[in-house]
Specification:
The protein has 354 residues and is of the alpha/beta class. It has 15 helices and eleven strands.
Length: 354
Amino acid sequence: MKPLSNDTMLRAFMREKTDYTPVWMMRQAGRYLPEYNATRKRAGSFLGLCKSPDYATEVTLQPLDRFPLDAAILFSDILTVPDAMGLGLYFAEGEGPKFERTVRDEAAVARLAVPDIEAALGYVTGAVRQIRKALDGRVPLIGFSGSPWTLACYMVEGGGSDDHRTVKAMAYQRPDLMHRILEVNARAVTAYLNAQIDAGAQAVMIFDTWGGALSAGAYKTFSLAYMAKVVAGLKRENEGRPVPVVLFTKGGGLWLEDMAATGCDALGLDWTIELSEARRRVGDKVALQGNIDPTVLFAGPETVRAEVGKVLASYGHGHGHVFNLGHGISQFTPPEHAAALVAAVHELSPQYHR
């Protein structure tokens, strides 16, 4: 593989010296970009995009061709893993992801097994290889997966949920079944992320979207413990350099110290916690990623620039910060406002690295 011409993000994740704060955006390839919508129309569906390495490569590169971002992130979906387990993922118009088969009883739980990654998810590893080739060393490529708990939420509920009452009830009433689901999921996520690393992903991120829906004790038991198992099983070096691991729990500000103790290299933060406070609490244990509120991007470029300045000042001087949103970019974001964010990070951050 061609050496990276810009490895700023990888160095920041490992808390090494950088000249500026690198920036990428969660969900940076998405519906706010007209070129993405055009490609999705050609693909015929969202799953058509995800399951075609050609289309996945095309949309992964689109934001990089528009903005001077410091990383690419694989275009895929967290629910490809339970889909590969045979649950039948589909997208209902206006309703988001759904599964044809849920995992709610002993028989369904007993049927769960770690999928053959190359056989069932070869379109993802194929996309990783293709994207790496197309990037030609411009910036690093981030791979990702949903966390074991977040995947379980969709598998048990059968889709998205406002209150997660079915999956949380199972956790309390039948913890044996929940632990069996999470154990299989953890092994699947580990194998899936390692396959992405082998294919060329240079950093990996675990998205724990629904960990924040749990109480403190339940979070540590049903979410954090299984993310720690995944982290422990990951390849941490490839192509002669470290492969950083990033954990992101939406609503996880209460548990930063516990998350940092998993052995990950960086924590993704949502917008509900002050960066200075997060940095004080975790010290030099891990790098921090985040954490501007995505709705700031609905304001004008001058406001975006001012808010970027506040986030950078909150982290303060030193290395180990990767600028990002506190969650995925909204489909209604004007692309020029995203451009203003990237420009502001690059212009305002060097003063913090002298």
